[in-house]
Design a protein that fits this description.
This protein is α+β, with helices and mostly antiparallel strands. Helix content is about 15%, strand content about 40%. It is found in: Nucleus.
Length: about 260
């Protein structure tokens, strides 16, 4: 989920930080410049891990008196690998699917065709509901809704970087940087990291909409870094862990009654 990336940059330190040790001042400036920002094809920067090299400072006497140092450092970066299993919480949902947040990163979309088998959308409650394969769809006891802020386990299907480049015209409207259409529609470039081998029809359809995150109104919003995820897995275990805990407790209860 987190990786270390080596970066080279010229870091500028203002006079107000001259009283600090040089490495502390440089680290502060790097964090101020990179933290919580997306580097294209690198990932979401979290913070400095360490400094590898710090060159001789050059003082800008004719400017504000600050100095600059050529610096080589390592950053902690959020960039999960394809097929990695992650945990998050439900941020929002609609007929288009589900949006998941990890607290520090919200741009994760589960398209409607990537839910566990037996999942359907309830227009009355505006929620997705999962019914186990051996359950009764009409029995409320067998219905497991996707509630707001519920804990979810999902698998990363694809990633997409967008540098907000040239705005291009296309049928049906204008899209930035190649753009992404609404769920189920056409999209721009494919996933940056690709998808695992043997992707099913649902995964293929999900890959087609990579490039944006679905907003509250169901329209695709272009983000600098977005993930597409799935909860449809042959091995099971994806979705809300509480569902499987409840099923296990019911089975244990039934076995106890038989004894």
């Amino acid at each position: 989920m987190f990786v270390l990336s080596v970066i080279r940059d010229i870091i500028r330190v203002p006079p107000v930080q001259f009283a600090q040790p040089r490495n502390d001042a440089i680290t502060h400036q790097i964090n101020d410049k990179y933290a919580n920002r997306v580097l294209h094809n690198v990932g979401l920067c979290i913070r400095v891990f360490d400094l590898l090299e710090v060159g001789d400072p050059i003082v800008h006497a004719v400017a504000d008196g600050s100095y600059s140092c050529p610096t080589k450092f390592r950053l902690v970066v959020f960039r999960p690998f394809i097929d990695e299993i992650l945990h998050g919480r439900v941020h929002s949902q609609g007929e288009w699917g589900l949006r998941i947040t990890m607290g520090f990163f919200d741009d994760i979309t589960v398209p409607k065709n990537c839910f566990p088998q037996g999942t359907r959308y309830d227009a009355k409650t505006s929620k997705w509901i999962w019914v186990p394969p051996d359950g009764d769809p009409d029995d409320p006891d067998w219905q497991y809704p996707f509630g707001h802020n519920d804990h979810m386990r999902f698998r990363v299907l694809a990633e997409k970087f967008d540098d907000g480049g040239q705005v291009v015209e296309r049928a049906g409207g204008v899209a930035a940087g190649g753009g992404a259409g609404p769920p189920g529609g056409g999209a721009g470039a494919g996933a940056g990291g690709g998808a695992g081998a043997g992707a099913g029809a649902g995964e293929a359809a999900a890959l087609a909409m990579v490039g944006g995150v679905v907003g509250q109104d169901g329209a695709a919003v272009v983000r600098p870094y977005a993930l597409t995820a799935t909860m449809d897995d042959e091995l099971g275990g994806l979705g809300n862990p509480a569902w499987f805990a409840s099923a296990a407790e019911e089975e244990e209860g039934g076995d106890a009654m038989e004894m």
